[in-house]
Amino acid sequence: MEIYIAENPHEMGLKAGELGAQAVKNAIANHGAANIILATGTSQFDTMSTLIADKGIDWSKVVMFHLDEYIGLPITHKASFRKYLKDRFLARVPNIKAYYLIDGEKDPVEECKRLNDLIGRHPIDVAFVGIGENGHLAFNDPPADFETTDPYIVVNLDEACRAQQMGEGWFPSLEDVPERAISMSVHQIMSSDVIICSVPDERKAEAVSRSLTGPVTPDVPASILQNHDKCYLFLDKASAKIYAEQVSS
Question: Taking the model in full, what pTM does it have?
């Protein structure tokens, strides 16, 4: 794992997007195509914009999967991750080779089967991810399942995770946040050749510190990133605050 600390979230997203774009271009150059995973949420705004702005990416050679989606949430809801990706990514790269979105309105078990078959035929070159306030990776809340090899799984969302979604403005109240989701598994994320992890904001400083300085444990799902030799973690000064104090003391 390599760690980069930027002055602010915008610079963080710029650097993460630049490195991610280069990794996508490298995959295309080496394999003739690139399979990528995109995260959503506020942490990804600048990273995604930088990725899209890179004119050197031939999107006709890129296949996209995404990390997670709420079960039972319509695509018209502002918190829908399908809507997020359609509005903020797919509308801006109309020539993409293929994309596979998680449909949380379908039977979740059957939807996992569909996605598992698809991603099994597309080894992931670059995964763009974030870390939640409770240390989650995708929607793998603590204690996360580090053992399953199924690419997509049905998960229950804990209260801390749901409170984060409300706090970021996606839902008006905690009761409105769905309690279940389809999530890419930890094993599948770790199977990616390159991982670009973007984590801004002081509210995530404790999770960052625990993920980087503590043991690798399901109780801090993102701590598993310590075991990936091509994981690039991008922080801003606020999210790195506790970690920086620990390593300097």
Answer: 0.94
